């Protein structure tokens, strides 16, 4: 029993410190947002923005429209669509006509270089982009007017790629709140904290490239080396001796209504991709979240090592700090959020177990498998 008490105590202390330090790092770095505008450093580069689109999503007109309203001197928009019958095409054409002063094109076709449908959709855009600076941005990213300058703000001579994790906003319903709990104070926080200590890694929602950094390492086809293009991008850039950096504050993704099935399947897909692309980090995910530290504190209380109220106090402090971070950074936070955070942490071990128990998943109607040899054949879960 003595050994169990020591292990529980050490685990509780270490995980709590990591949790609170990560929150402090992300909150502090958020205060630097907008402090170093690149406009004073000289002429801004012309940028090509590639937007893969597929179907009618929540707030799709607003997110696509935001790309036409950037406060930036010169850029082009390249919309990539896999199928000529996609229902999003009329919307894109209408926006292009409405904002005729913004150079924009729509490219249709599907180049199957990987099991990743988004990457296949982007190939033609990368090849057609006219400028040396290129953004790959998902269609559900809501671009603020300073979208491009905020990414340039993070560029330095040692930078090879600038990214932004998704930040859930405008959730409609309990399950959208559940998705916010994963995206914001959990996944975005850990990614931003990793970047703050010099270990940034790519996130596919927004990736800002200098073309030469990818072309000299095999071009866009090099991103097919992993099932997820952002994992491959991280390896390409780090292999070049350059750094992946993240924006100070992420760009929002309006969530709208979500079903539990959709949220769970999306998280499971990402978990299975992390399992095969970054297995060491994935192994540690079983113990992240507040459930195990709080249970450890309860165990210590039951054995009269710490006061009986300590586990409850840790729980309040644990999720209270998440709330302070979300409020301080103007991220979504409502009275439902703490309940969603608790549900998230309880579900994390179950998500991890499901991630290691299969290889297949569905992505935008495409049956996929995280095994390298499974472009067309998917293993049944």
UniProtKB/TrEMBL annotation:
It is found in: Membrane. It holds the Pfam family Glyco_transf_21. The keyword Transferase applies. One of its GO terms (molecular function) is ceramide glucosyltransferase activity. This is Ceramide glucosyltransferase. It comes from the Bacteria. It is a multi-pass membrane protein. It is an enzyme of class 2 (transferase). PANTHER family: CERAMIDE GLUCOSYLTRANSFERASE. Pathway: Sphingolipid metabolism; Lipid metabolism; sphingolipid metabolism. It comes from Kaistia dalseonensis. Keywords: Glycosyltransferase, Membrane, Transferase, Transmembrane, Transmembrane helix. Its EC number is 2.4.1.80. The keyword Zinc does not apply. The chain crosses the membrane at residues 6-28, 276-300, 306-326.
